């Protein structure tokens, strides 16, 4: 990965020297650099390069060009991954009207960004607002993406999670039971479904049904070991949940 980034840095320097900082090929190269840093979780460098890319895209192409919208999305996403939730929300809320104008209200990227905004509000201690936003999002996702779409499934997952924070564990358990039923199209060993099974077991434990929660976690850990391996962050997170909930 380090060798790849060194090569990309050299290629970008060559493009700047030969074509100029605002040339299309130069900016494409800069976009690849942003993705490389982001994929390796080097978010500080990714944000710095993305800020430069976004500024250039806006200057050369305008705020509503699809490439500019992509750069703005990446900028907001990186902020969120860094835990800068307030600034990420601000960037998304500036971006979303432009995305709707260019791409349409039912575009997958629009719906995904609405999900991110809702989730960040929840993380900032406003679960009630997260539930309101996610409830509307799920309705729109069913219309535009379909009931069995993977993103619709993820949105229902987040709605169930934040509903638990607002209405209590029993509500979350009921909602996650519905989400798990709808997961049959993906299978119980799907990575996203494993994550939903984790949250379902978590809220079952919070509701006080310890025996059922322990059984759910045992089954989940067995499947995660088979599918993900014991070194995967998701399996380690499940083990931490089991210990934190006193189920070990």
Span of the ends, CA to CA: 38 Å
Strand content: under 5%
Helix and strand succession? HHHHHHHHHHHH
Number of H/I helices? 12
The largest sheet, given as strand count, sense and whether it forms a barrel, is:
none
Instruction: Note the quaternary state here.
Output: single chain
* Number of β-strand runs: 0
Helix content: over 70%
Shape: globular
* Secondary structural class: mainly alpha
**Alpha carbon gyration radius:** 21 Å
Task: Let me know the average pLDDT.
Answer: 91
Spans of 5+ residues with little confidence (pLDDT < 50)? none
Plain-language structure description:
The chain is mainly alpha-helical and 248 residues long. It contains twelve helices and no strands. The mean pLDDT is 91.
Q: In a nutshell, what does this entry contain?
A:
The protein is built from twelve helices and no strands.
Entry keywords:
248 residues, mainly alpha, 12 helices
List the helices and strands and how they pair.
Elements: H1 2-19, H2 24-39, H3 43-61, H4 66-81, H5 85-103, H6 108-123, H7 127-144, H8 150-167, H9 169-182, H10 191-207, H11 210-227, H12 233-244
Helix pairs in contact: 1-2, 2-3, 3-4, 4-5, 5-6, 6-7, 6-8, 7-8, 8-9, 8-10, 9-10, 10-11, 11-12
């Amino acid at each position: 990965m380090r060798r790849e980034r060194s090569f990309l840095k050299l290629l970008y320097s060559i493009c700047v020297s030969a074509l100029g900082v605002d040339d299309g090929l130069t900016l494409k190269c800069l976009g690849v650099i942003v993705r490389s840093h982001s994929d390796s979780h080097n978010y500080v460098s990714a944000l710095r390069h993305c800020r430069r890319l976004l500024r250039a895209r806006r200057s050369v192409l305008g705020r509503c060009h699809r490439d500019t919208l992509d750069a703005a999305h990446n900028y907001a996403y990186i902020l969120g991954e860094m835990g800068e939730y307030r600034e990420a929300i601000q960037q998304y809320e500036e971006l979303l009207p432009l995305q709707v104008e260019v791409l349409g209200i039912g575009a997958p990227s629009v719906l995904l960004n609405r999900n991110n905004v809702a989730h960040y509000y929840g993380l900032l201690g406003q679960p009630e607002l997260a539930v309101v936003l996610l409830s509307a999002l799920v309705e729109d996702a069913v219309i535009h993406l379909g009931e069995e779409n993977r993103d619709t499934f993820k949105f229902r997952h987040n709605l169930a999670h934040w509903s638990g924070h607002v209405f209590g564990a029993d509500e979350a358990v009921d909602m996650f039971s519905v989400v798990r039923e709808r997961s049959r199209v993906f299978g119980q060993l799907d990575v996203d479904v494993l994550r939903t099974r984790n949250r379902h077991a978590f809220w079952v434990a919070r509701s006080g049904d310890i025996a059922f929660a322990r059984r759910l976690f045992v089954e989940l850990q067995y499947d995660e070991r088979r599918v993900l391996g014991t070194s995967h962050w998701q399996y380690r997170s499940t083990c931490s949940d089991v210990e934190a909930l006193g189920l070990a």
